[in-house]
Amino acid sequence: MAIEIERKFLVDGAAWREGVSRSEPMRQGYLAGPPAARCSVRARIEGEHAFLNIKSATAGVQRDEYEYAVPVDDARRMLATLAGDLVEKVRHHVVVDGHLFEIDEFGGANTGLVVAEIELDAVDAPFPRPPWLGREVSHLARYYNLHLATHPYARWSEAERNADDAA
Questions:
Q1: In this protein, which residues make up the domain named CYTH (predicted)?
Q2: Fewest CB within 10 A of the end CB: N or C in the chain?
């Protein structure tokens, strides 16, 4: 079974941009998901590559995840004909002390939201905390891409943007 251990953080400021080694535009849409299913199923196009991803619909640092490469033309068709609202972002790769942070700079209805993710080998694995790494939002489902597709950041209230409880 594939298990993903990932921590998510809001990003403070723009100092992280100095460390970007690669950036990739992404478009993704959800083909199935909660509340009818116990998982989300999404198609994602990353530059010239495409993937079908199945992830357990649980909030937290550790979740089941399966990902399979698919032809880009198939993914384009899935996004055009099967997906609901899309999430658009640019994923920037920033390495800090040998650890890869994937920084998602969202566009469209999620413009203004910047989230850093780091995948770890264990839930309690140590990792660097660069000054631009802000508040942890790993347990807040509203920061998951599935939620951002249906409830974009532009429609959030100030209270939602600052709340620490799961939404």
A1: 2-150
A2: N
